[in-house]
Each structure stands twice: as structure tokens, then as C-alpha cells.
Amino acid sequence: MSDVRKGQVTIPSDQDFFDATKTLIDKWGADAIRDSDGTKLDPELKTLSMKFYSTYFVARGHNEFAASHPAAVQQLYLMSERVVAYTPTLTIGLMAGYYDQQIQPNWRDNPKTYWEVIDRTTGMVVKPADWTVDEASQSVQLSAAIPFHEYTVSFLADMLWDPTEMYNHLTNNWGDKPHDIPFDVRDPAARDFIQSYLKQWLKANPEIDVVRFTTFFYHFTLVFDQHAREKFVDWLGYGGTVSVAALKAFEQIKGYRLRPEDFVDAGFYNSTFRPPTQRYLDYIDFVQRFVTDQAKILVAMVHSADKEAMMFLGDNWIGAEPYGPYFKEIGLDAVVGSVGSGMTLRLIADIPGVKYTEGRFLPYFFPDVFRPGNDPVIEARANWLTARRALMRKPLDRIGYGGYLKLAAQFPHFVDYVAHVTDEFRDISDKIADTIPYSSLKVAVLNGWGKLRSWQSFIVAHGKRYEQTYSYEGVLEALAGQPVDVMFLSFNDILATGIPADVDVMINVGSVGTAFSGGDIWQEPRLVTLIRQWVAAGHGFIGIGEPTATAQPYQGRRFQLADVLGVDQELAFSLSTDRYWDQPMGENIAWITKDLTLDFGTGTPNLIAVADAQYLRYGREQLRMTVKDYGAGRGVYIAGLPYTLDNARLLLRAMHYAAHKESILMQNYATNPNVEVHVYPGKGLYAVLNNTHDKQNSELFLNGKHTVVELEPDEIRWEREPQ
């Protein structure tokens, strides 16, 4: 695509790399240059006609201030290891299992006021009079422990090393480089410092066009163990936002006091998988409001200096959630984030309230990938093909890369492949930017978080995954590139305002007891009643994994919408009830699974068909799918859906079946699941994608007309819509 124009691409650079950077600017068509953590731009680069981004750290990288203001150091609540008492006297070490270069207990603020000792056998809080602290040994001593009960201490800790800088430091072996100390802008002196420093920085850097905030004030929860390995990481976690000042402000604003347990959460630290309590939701709202108020001051300062303000969706992004209620008030020009999958691309591309979005593609130019004997093209190609499906639905405005350009330049084959990616990206952007793609359905993903965590179910970061969610995460990845409109709906949304009138299909997916499946919210009669009425009126409901499930059977059911889905889960309480597996699979499941090689992942055990459901099973009583008519609507159940191209097609067919819109599916459709069709009515264009590294052929149905196409590996073919 040598005739494709240049631009819309940001690349990193470094000192003493001017000539090579110029070569790559031309080869990749870059129009912007950025620095990275630990790098400085070569002064000669500023002679080029380019846009310059500068990474800007608000609450780290200022160790002189942090060292002179110890009360402003960022804090978090942590839980000690669980210790069993054998006598009434018990000593609990606070730092066991923690990295002492990252965190230390906060001894400044009275532990008797801000810590809790909990008997984890009973769940009761131990009276402060029954324990003492010993700063010298960094421990807590109990004087009236109950023998053979288990105890923990929830304590405030100072964060002495920024987690991302720590990761970069260890990964790149930065040796004696000083550790960045994060500090909390709730401290008035810290607020004054960050504003005065930014004012000076803006004056001192007139050549910078884009201030890339990385990000604002609070890092996602990331704590390391005694061996400097990740101990707890939650990309959505608010654990690193707490302080005594925050606790006091929360009580004044919300009218009640939080406990340490509201943060420690029995050692789960409010993982995003936990159904959020109202107290935790109140705290999230409180932090978002504060971050918005403070961040918009900094953004206004950037604008007054005639520069753009960009936010990196990562590192210190907590409280600046782009799908939160206050985000637009910050006034940002752009958001940039790491693209690890189609799901993470949509997470960035769908962000409202900014002028443009930018995706940082993988691999990152770090020595863990760019090392002798490794081929970084393998990861780059997989990353691009996966993300490209989503790009066809909602294109980013810009793309880029990060890390050390010196490393990438040592791999000529990789340099050539990035040139292909950047050209193809610009070609896609030119053809479909600001165009609404064809959609056959409106789909709502139902969970405990709703819109706040759009495209973030099961997320780790940068497209990584949890092994335990392998069988579920494919749902959002499949949806990211399919011709359907996707929204995210919470259980509280339904209880408050009902189900939006334009939704055709609702999907509930996840493990029992989690925020994504729902947990005990399914014991709420109004919720199940509203959904049953909605399905019976002619809509579709799809459950995957352990949908609508309560931790314990409720009124004889594990899946509370078993009647809709046609399936329940056996917990051994009804093994004495005979089950007969003599019903044939049925034509409805056969239609959904037609010509597909299915992968149910780890599946879901002990499933039983309910009422008149049609079902698909493998082996002796291993049920994998059910379909069921429910009034004028339909329910569909799938035991697991890891991401494969066949599984993505399975979901697409299941959604159309559930919505009674099978005929619409074939309006714009490729029979080969490795091939997808995207139609853009406003431009009179359609694109046919080969999502594999092999040649593919497929029948195509476009506006009712039939044709056959043969595609080269990775190919996109653009054609005019048939009339």
C-alpha cells in the first residue's frame, strides 16, 4: 500500500538515535514522537516537523518532594498473613509475604484508630485493648487470642516504590536508579506542588505538543511479594487510593465511616470479580469525583499553554475511568491505551468525551521480547489480526508503539511488518472513519458493573488473561468484532429503569458468585421477574458458564433463570432424582452449531436439562448447550466459550437464534467462520476479512446476493456494496 498517505502513527525514540529514527519515521509514516519511561528524546529530533508527546508523571518521579513530605506518601490497606493461635498470646508479623522495598507499615497514624485485628474463624473484630503494636519488630501482639482460631491484621501501609516504575526497573535492570516514590495529592502540600511544578514544566518545554499524563494520581492495585514478584494485581482496583485524609473526607461527604475491612475485604481487596458492595460503590464514586476535580485543573493548565492533554489508560488511571459519570468533565483531548486484543481495542476506541483515541500496539519494545533468537513479528502479527476485527467496528484515530526504538530497529523483519500494519491501519481509517457500520442486533452484556466497566469483564491488563476465565473471556472478544451493537448493563440498572427497549439479546456470563455472573442478586424477585417478562415478550437471553447462579441453591435452583435457559446445575442434593438423556439434539441447536468446530473450554460440570429444552451433550451426561422457547422469546445456554473464530461464529448464530432473527443473519454473512464481512452503508462499501495466516475461501451473502471469494493470508478485500 505504498500509495497510502502518512500520519496517524506515534513512535518512541531515544537519545543518540536521530538518523535511525528518521529512517523509521519515513518507513512507518509516523507524524508524532514520544518518550518512554526511562528515556529522553534526542535534541536533534526537535528539528523535525513532527508532533511531540512527553510522558508526564503527576504523582511520581519527584522524590525530593516525597522524601520531605512523608505524610503525603501514597498508602493502601493490606492484610497480614493468616496466623493460627495455639495459646492466648499470638504475634503476627506484618511484612511476611511483602516486599520491604515497596511497602512499609504506616506508624504515623494511630494503629488503634485505623487498623483492625480480625478473628477470621468467627469474623469478629478483636477489641483494640486486646492487642498492641511493636514498630521495631513490625508486628502485632494479641493478648487474648482464642486457641486454634485464625487471625489477621488489616493495616495501613506506605507505598515506597511506584509499582509500574518498579516493574520497568526490574524488567530492564536499571540497577541503582532511584526508586520513584508515589505521593497522594489529597495532601494540600502535594496539590500545591503538582500545580506549581506543571506550570514551570509547561514554560520550560515549549516544543512539546501533547502532554501525556501517565496518568493522574492513583495507581491500580499492584503489590509485590518478598521476592519482588507480583502478589496481588487488579487493573481495576482502588486499593492504592486510600489515606487517612481520604477516610476523613469520605465520612464528611457520604455521612458514614469506612472500615479497614471495606478495603481488605477478607484478603480479596475488592477484586473486580467480587460483587461490589454499596459501600465500595460509594467509595469508587467518591474517588472519581475527587480525581475529576483535581485532574481538570491540570488539563486546564495544559490548554492554557496551547498544548493538548492526553491520558494514558494505565498505570495511575484509577478514578479517571472513561466510562464513569464524571470523566467528560476532565476536558481531556485524547486517551491512549495498550491494545492487547480486540476487547482492549474497543475499550479504548469506544471512549466518549474525547477528541481522539490512540492505541499502543504490542509488542512493547522491551528486551523480554526483542532479544537474540526471538521473533517479535509472531506477537505483532497475532496482536494486529486480533485487534483488526474490532477496528472494523470502531476504528481508533491513531496507533503507536512504546519502549526502546533502538531494540526494534535491530529486527528488520519486524520493521517491515510494522510498515504493513501502519499502512493498513491508515487505509481502514480513510475508508470507514466517522461511518456507522451495519449492525443486525443490539446486545446487552449483563453484570454487576454495567457501563462503568465497559469492555472490561475478566480483564487483567493489555489483553492478558486469567487461566480460570479461559472459558468465559471469549464472549467479549467475539463481540468486539461482530456486526452487533454492544452495551453494558448492570443489575441495578434493570431494577432502577428496566431493560432498554432496543435491546434484542441479553448475555450473562461468568462463574458463580462473581460480579459478572451476579451472585446473590439473583435472589431479588423483581430482577428475575422483569427478565422473564422481557424474554417472554419476544427477546433472547443467553447464559454462559454459571449464569444467574447463586452460591447456594435458592428455592431448589442453582441457576435462577433455569426455566429460561433450560438448564440447571446439580450440586448432589438431587442425585436421587432420575435423569433421562434420550432426547435428540434437535434442529435448533443443529442450526446454531452448523459446520462449526466447537470448543467449550473447561466447560461447566454437573449440568442437567430442564423442562422441554433441546440439548447438546458430549459423553455420559456432559451437557454443553441448551436452547429453549420461552413464551415468544428464547433462551440459549453454552457451557463455555473461549475465543476461537468458530466460537465467535457460534455466538453470532446463537444471538440471532435467541432474538428470532435467523433470517437477518444471512443478509451480510460469510459461511467460512475464518472470514468476516463488515458493511458500511453510509459509504456503500463492504470489507471481507481473512482473520487467519492461511488462504481462505468462502461463500458470501451481501444484501441477499450470493458470491464466492478467495482471500490471501491476512487479507482485507474492499468492494462496493451490490445494489
UniProtKB/TrEMBL annotation:
Residues 669-718 form the Lacto-N-biose phosphorylase C-terminal domain. Residues 442-662 form the Lacto-N-biose phosphorylase central domain. Signal peptide: none annotated. One of its GO terms (molecular function) is 1,4-alpha-oligoglucan phosphorylase activity. Residues 7-438 form the Lacto-N-biose phosphorylase-like N-terminal TIM barrel domain. NCBIfam families: 1,3-beta-galactosyl-N-acetylhexosamine phosphorylase. This is 1,3-beta-galactosyl-N-acetylhexosamine phosphorylase. It comes from Lacticaseibacillus saniviri JCM 17471 = DSM 24301. The lineage of its organism: Bacteria, Bacillati, Bacillota, Bacilli, Lactobacillales.
